[in-house]
Design goal:
The chain folds into 2 domains: about 280 residues, Spore Coat Polysaccharide Biosynthesis Protein SpsA, Chain A, CATH 3.90.550; about 50 residues. Helices cover about 45% and strands about 15% of the residues. The protein is built from 15 helices and 13 strands. A 7-stranded mixed beta sheet has the order 3-2-1-4-10-6-11, with helices on both faces. A 3-stranded mixed beta sheet has the order 5-12-7. Helix 11 crosses helix 14. The radius of gyration is 23 Å and the shape is globular. The chain starts with a helix and ends with a helix.
Length: about 425
């Protein structure tokens, strides 16, 4: 009841954008049902003005209104439709999604409400909204949670989820249940962000260390803004909603560096699972020979992380991104058990690696530039060539597998090879 009193004057507007049957099913059968967990929407009173803004085409809205979970959700928040046309031919889905986000964010800004940007392919642990209320009570003006991409088939198998089956009952999972399933379902994109793994991503959106069987320690460049206090936004800039990361530079362009920006550092506070089909962005893995060489391999990985830090915090966006720079310093404990001394050892290792790779770039810096950082910069100049070689090798490995499959009688592999040969020779099929 205390949370309701605190939030009476300014409500929370959750907002989500989607179109098409697949994402409509994700929204209704997974996201909505997880928001019905006891510590989520049920902690709110609809009479306080809380809303869920659903930005989607008309036919998707009519289908959602008929879903079994719709009536249950309306007991706690008002569902409001914001019309959105399906994307025109040729427009990238990310670009079109940002159009919907701009419409919904404008509604939040005009009302000076608290905004919470959701995605249809999210599954929240119980207690998410209760944690938002606590952060609001503490004066938080922006709250960001790391976004780790998960492999859909493994995640759904772990939870026994069927996004195509309409149901209205709540999905109730504890934060540690979500964390355990997530660790077992890491997408290739995230698996390659383990700095001492077999192969370190050439442009990691996070970096992580394994804490024995207890979890992961993560430093991230990719965040989901799950709370934005729009009364703290004086001039609303929406151009930053979009791009390769979940939040773009939207928070950085609307929140001054001195704002009360918080980063979730413990998965027991807030955690969610967000997925993508396994094949989307799948990596042609294997152990990197150069990255596993003594001494040079470690320097190469640090140089890669150094380049990623510069890219995400300074080069990707026209004005830089002070939020990602600040958030990268926050070690997130993504854990399934209570902490013990093993976490101290992992944090110490992570701290040393962060300092060695980007310590002089941080604000404030952890250490001054040195001959070691100059060596990393020299390696960084050669990374584009290294990246090109890695792509070429990956293509050769793929072609080799296709050729072997064709020789073994795989009709699809033979057709693929014939199509490529015809294309090279200029022969139309």
């Amino acid at each position: 009841m205390g949370d309701r009193v605190l939030l009476k004057k300014r409500p929370i507007f959750f907002f989500v954008v989607f179109w098409g049957a697949r994402f409509r099913c994700y929204f209704a059968n997974v996201l909505l049902r997880s928001l019905l967990a006891p510590g989520n929407l049920p902690v709110l009173a609809r009479s306080d003005g809380h809303k869920l803004l659903v930005c989607c085409p008309e036919d998707d809205w009519f289908a959602v209104r008929a879903h079994p979970a719709f009536a249950a959700v309306t007991c706690h928040v008002e569902l409001v439709h914001i019309p959105l046309e399906p994307p025109p031919h040729g427009r990238h889905p990310v670009d079109h999604m940002s159009v919907g986000h701009r419409h919904a964010a404008a509604v939040c800004f005009d009302a000076k409400a608290y905004g919470s940007l959701l995605h249809p392919d999210m599954l929240f642990a119980d207690g998410f909204v209760a944690s938002l209320c606590r952060h609001i009570a503490e004066g938080t003006q922006a709250l960001l949670v790391p976004a780790l991409r998960l492999a859909q088939s493994r995640l759904f198998a772990n939870f026994g989820l069927d996004a195509d089956r309409d149901a209205g009952d709540a999905l109730v999972f504890s934060p540690r249940a979500i964390t355990a399933a997530s660790i077992e379902s890491l997408h290739d994109e995230i698996a390659e962000c383990e700095i001492d793994g077999p192969r370190f991503s050439l442009l990691p959106n996070s970096v992580w260390w394994r804490a024995c069987e207890q979890g992961l320690l993560v430093h991230s460049f990719s965040w989901s803004p799950l709370l934005i206090d729009y009364s703290a936004v004086t001039q609303h800039v929406t151009e930053g909603l979009g791009g390769p990361l979940a939040d773009g530079d939207y928070v950085a362009r609307n929140m001054r560096p001195e704002a009360q920006i918080a980063f979730v550092a413990d998965s027991d506070d807030i955690v969610f699972a967000s997925w993508t089909p396994d094949a989307v962005g799948a990596r042609d893995g294997g152990r990197s020979v150069l990255q596993n060489l003594p001494v040079f391999g470690q320097a190469l990985r640090r140089a890669i992380l150094r380049r990623a830090y510069r890219y995400y915090t300074r080069e990707l966006y026209p004005f830089g991104d002070h939020v990602k720079a600040k958030g990268f310093r926050v070690p997130l404990k993504f854990h399934t058990r209570d902490f013990d001394r093993s976490w101290d050892a992992v944090e110490a290792t992570a701290g040393r690696e962060i300092a060695a790779a980007v310590g002089d770039l941080l604000e404030p810096p952890l250490c001054p530039p040195s001959w070691r950082t100059r060596v990393l910069d020299w390696i960084g100049f050669a990374l584009p060539a290294y990246e090109s070689v890695q792509r070429a090798l990956a293509s050769l490995r793929f072609i080799r597998r296709r050729a072997i499959a064709a020789l073994c009688g795989d009709a699809d592999a033979r057709a693929w090879i014939l199509d490529r040969l015809r294309a090279r020779l200029g022969i139309r099929s």
